[in-house]
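User:
Care to share a sequence and structure tokens?

Assistant:
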Amino acid sequence: MGFVFILIYLTIILVVIEINTVLFTFTGLKKHIARFQVISMLTGTGFTTGESELIIDHPIRRRIGAFLILFGAFSLAVIISAISSILSDEFHTMKIGYVAGVLVLFLFVLKVGKVKNRLTVFFEHELESNFELQDLTIKDVFLKEKNDYLVEVPLHSSSTMIGGELIEKLNSEEDINILLIKRGEIIIRKERLNTELQAGDFILMFGDKEVIRNMFKTELKEHEAETKGEIDRRNNIQS
């Protein structure tokens, strides 16, 4: 019976992983990122990737993460105890089996369309009602609609924007909002639209994705090519 108990408890752990993965996706996290972070917190492996900031910087995800860390510590103790008592007849296999069944049922309920939509709306309402703007992630603040786009555009030496001012380049009817210009250590906000642009400037903007990508097509393509080249060089060095 001891082996059956361990098998059932491992099933519970797998179901808990899936439940929390689904809950993370309700907060806007991509599924593959959510599952990796859930496993990381549950096992206490402590991966400090950039993706972990998506959990730390989000108030609701932090709460779910705290539960996972505690549940992972408890589960480790249970499994060690079960293995040490493998020959004992006092295992409550049926009771733990009921727990596993309830969790599996709960997982299926979470995947129902209406439940998913209601929980997603509930989490969004919680963020808006109970947390300050500075507590929220960039995605929760800016990226509300499908075409919303927040991007930092670098101006290379070949950019046609150099020498001009953004107020001359932008159409007031187009959905582009300039947040700031970064020039080395200098941040330009107040005069961002009336500042003469220079090579090496970074323009942080928000608006419609297609409009931004069309207006800054050359700059973005050059930046993407440069980034790809840098990644290829790193891969060649590592290999």
